[in-house]
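Quick one: structure for this chain?
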Amino acid sequence: MNKGSGNAKNDFRKLVRDRILAMSEQQRKDKSLKAVSKLKSLEEFSRAKCVMVYVSKEDEVDTIGLITDMLKSGKRVVVPLVDEKSRKLIPCEISSIEELAVGTFGLLEPDPEKARIVSMDEVDLIVVPGRAFDRNCNRLGRGKGYFDRFLKRFGEGKKVIGLAFSEQVFDSIPVNENDVKVNIVVTESSIIRCGSGEPRAGLNKKTFDVHKLATSSLFMALFIVLRAVPTFPIIGVPGGSFPVSDVILPLYGVLLEPVHSATVILLGTILGYMIRPPRFLYLDFLPPLVNTLTVSLLWRRKTWLAFFIYVSVLAVFMTGPFSLLLVHLDFSGLEVDLPFHWLHLIAMPASLILIRLGSFKHKPDQIVFKFSGCALLGTMGQHSMGSALFGYVFGLTGIINREGFEKIWYTVFWIYPIERMLLVLVSTLIGVPAIRVLTRIIWRPQNPS
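Got it. Here's what it folds into:
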């Protein structure tokens, strides 16, 4: 990476400014349309479901049309809000251009009082501006460092694309260790890709690893402690009880990426065996793992993958040799056979309805609907996995015979819907405020004074 003084950087900024001002308004418009068209042709852009994009100024590639097109196509659109106090960019989701108004530095931004802040984990792709780029995908900003600081927090493996006019691209530009590279530079005439696997910033990988390790340790410790605190008993398991940690599983799925959340739950459960002995042949990590992984995928709109996991686990439960498919009931002489798994089947469309309600921007608190929808599918998936383990472990080892299982399943039939709805309710009551608090801590640090 080239070392460059502030004067050298300013010289490039002035040169770029003169080049852009030398273009007519129509030339800038034509070049913007071509650059945006090339951006849309990228596979990285096509795959992305949630895109963060800058709102352009008059001397940048115009993104207003791009934002409008993405909203029409169903992509989630996130734009930056400048927080001058913390000197950070805050990613906020919008549903219409009309939600933007002139804010800090004359930029179009969401209203800070109504901003719908999103987690960086939800963003698949970032499109950034720049004063200048070079052939190695180095980026030179306007000098305040907002995007550089933001990109250093953005997850590894996710793409960052610089959008610019060809007049802004050079063979080499002056940058230093504070300047963050992009993965791809797109102009109206070219697409420049950075070398595969090359880190975007010299210290980014180290920072990311340290941050991830600290986060994992904190969440894991909390999970282990709460897993040791029992609540109500598990029917049919002598001495067994549901732990308090079940309540926070959806929160883990929302806050952590799928692989990250799965790792925390797996290691947390295994390490927790020292204070809470396993009940199911050391496979106790599977039920909470299914819950958190399902929520994490569903929250990030990887719906088909979340449903695949859910349906697969449900199939294992339903086809188990000791499972009960139908419950025979007698209501004052009226005999009926009801599916034991009725709530498991209803959970799929019900969760989609709740998540859909959470996407309506006129709703006063759409996060409650989305969180409860994810928590519903997660806890039902956990119940399927736990019940499957219970059937296979206690049945195949001969601890419980078929008659014993039938009595247990008849009791569970009446209890599990109430139990699961209570878990969804409590998880939502705890999870939604926790997300708000953690978001404020991350994005709006308190004044030390």
